[in-house]
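Re: Re: ligand-bound prediction request (bumping)

Still looking for help on this. To restate: I need the protein modeled with fe (ii) ion bound, output as structure tokens. Inputs repeated here so nobody has to scroll up.
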Amino acid sequence: MLIKNVHIQNDDQTKDVRIENGQFVNISPSIEATNGEKVIDATDKLMLPPFVDPHVHLDATQTAGDPEWNQSGTLFDGIRIWSERKQKLTVEDVKARAKKAIKIQVANGIQFIRSHVDVTDPNLTALKALIEVRDEIKDQVELQLVAFPQEGILSFPHGKELMTEAADMGADVIGGIPHFEFTHEYAVASLQFLMKLAEQKGKLVDVHCDEIDDPQSRSLETLATLALESGMGDKVTASHTTAMGSYNDAYAYKLFRLLKMSHINFIANPLVNTNLGGRFDTYPKRRGMTRVKELNADGINVAFGEDDLKDPWYPMGNGNMLDPVEMGIHVGHLMGYDDIMNSYKFVTVNAAKAMHVTDHYGIEVGKPADCIIMNNDNFYNALNERSEILYSIHNGNVLVETEPKKVHNHFKF
Ligand code: 17E
Ligand code: FE2
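Reply:
Sorry for the wait, this slipped through. Here it is.
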């Protein structure tokens, strides 16, 4: 297959891209089509590596309103409502809802997904279901599963045993929720436990860390120290870290040195952080997002996730990564022209780095031919105009093709 005249990652110059046997084999200013070769004319269109959603909860998706809507909008009411809905889970129920969400995501150019899966369930029903989904879709979408202890590790009956069982069943990543543990001591012990578990079982780590507007919530320093001292480094991700939005600047300054040394990744979820954040404030109301601009400026890897598609924590969500990008750059004051142009990185290359998949991700000769083509010439325009994903290509196969919409204007000016 030959794709003609694309702007790769906002490059002013266009290139031609040849795909053979599922890989990129040639990327050059001009390539002649061979006899019978399939040619896609993508003149002046933007080619990006595929969208990545590095943080979503596919076990809870599409349950918003069941058994009740989250009227307060707090994280804690979300956890309470989900805990009730969780009693009704079956493997079929989880698989049907997760697949529906993944189909929406893939139609929007997503090819890599990291889903947290609640393992504070003695039957591990959601994990069983999502392992089946992961295997069923593996040739088309890469799905990583996080063993996520929604109700705590030390604060939930048999929490440690459930985490270990989830790791042995095949979770790819070990999670945590230190800010929800009963005490600071439990928070620290949960991080020590989960980091050891990940090391012993050869897993990645992605912790819901300090997802609270409490400047005293400082689990991040413990997680980063454990990542540094264990050598786990960039295998570790801190998700949310919204408390960092409430830290004083002197503490944040000191913390950033450690964060840089530790090489851990960050994932903000701008849509959901702004929904759940600031809920205990009257005015001024905090924004609920971590220090994305400052982390990014310091060369620390930051990505954006969608977090939720219609569940007890967020009543909206349409599987389109342009939405978290749009919210994230607004809330994070990343509104310079270059900031906007480069903001695709939060949901592509940076997110792939957090998922630890960069050995097989990126538009480079020799890598699997995974890419999307957007109906515009650069990302500033594509984001502003919500341009279609004309093609989503995975391992050289076209996963999705979109016809651009046609608008017929009848006004007279
Ligand atoms: N659970 C949690 O602890 N935090 C979240 N943001 C979601 C689920 C969506
Ligand atoms: Fe989350």
